[in-house]
Specification:
Layout lengths: L9 E8 L4 H8 L4 H8 L4 H22 L7 E4 L5 E5 L6 E7 L2 E7 L3 E7 L6 H8 L2 H9 L3 H19 L22 E4 L7 E8 L5 E8 L7 E7 L1
């Protein structure tokens, strides 16, 4: 896989399919840690288990290319809210975030804190009900004016998830505490969050073109007010 150099001011977003032949799934599973294998074993559905193994195996493959180390030597630790970071074989400044939905995964790699999310469009989502519980007043108003409520909802939901994952504090940062949608239903360029109620952090927010039936969003910690060059790469 041609990774290429990760330059300052860049975010690499890898979009990969999760379906794979059994022998390929086994090869990727062989790269996983004992903890990852235990998590994979917790999935009752074989397809869900295989998708987990594929996603986490590919994360290791891609990060290994950036770090120039064998995939199996990479070790992770998580913070108190569950966000992973690389700690071995080198304690590096490379940040990453993984998201997967249905048959697709996204992996964002950057030199700043980053969050990414992808959601598959499906029927039966109670968009209004979820929004009333988790969206800000401003976003609920935008959703109420939307012609395509399902698409607008998922655009907002993926953006919020990306920010939450970028901050790395889980739902201790309430989803309604920040606004991601402008009045014209586009994602706001910059989102300000206050994880501890005092110190504010800015994240740049980007909508990702993840293809038919999927919605994706990327959030990157703002660095001196600059924007980021997002390089979106796709593989089957």
């Amino acid at each position: 896989m041609d990774i290429g150099a990760l330059h300052a001011g860049e975010v690499h977003v890898w979009q990969l399919g999760l379906d794979a032949e059994a022998d390929h799934v086994a090869q990727l599973a062989a790269l996983l840690s004992e903890d990852e294998l235990n998590k994979a074993a917790g999935f009752r559905a074989p397809l869900d288990r295989a998708h987990f193994q594929v996603a986490h195996g590919r994360v290791r493959q891609i990060l290994a290319e950036y770090l120039s180390v064998p995939s199996r030597e990479i070790r992770f630790e998580t913070n108190q809210w569950g966000k992973p970071r690389i700690v071995c074989p080198v304690d590096c400044a490379l940040h990453f975030n993984l998201a997967h939905s249905h048959r697709q995964m996204l992996l964002a790699v950057c030199r700043r804190e980053v969050g990414v999310d992808i959601e598959h469009m499906r029927s039966g989502i109670d968009a209004r009900g979820i929004a009333e519980n988790y969206f800000s007043v401003e976003e609920i108003a935008v959703l109420g004016q939307a012609q395509d409520i399902g698409a607008t909802f998922l655009r907002c939901w993926t953006a919020k998830e990306a920010v939450i994952k970028g901050v790395g504090m889980g739902l201790s940062l309430p989803l309604a505490s920040f606004v991601t949608l402008a009045d014209d239903q586009t994602l706001m360029r910059k989102v300000r969050v206050s994880p501890d109620g005092g110190t504010a952090a800015d994240f740049h927010l980007y909508a990702l073109d993840t293809g038919p039936e999927y919605f994706g969003a990327l959030a990157v910690h703002a660095d001196s007010g600059s924007t980021w060059r997002v390089i979106h790469r796709t593989r089957s």
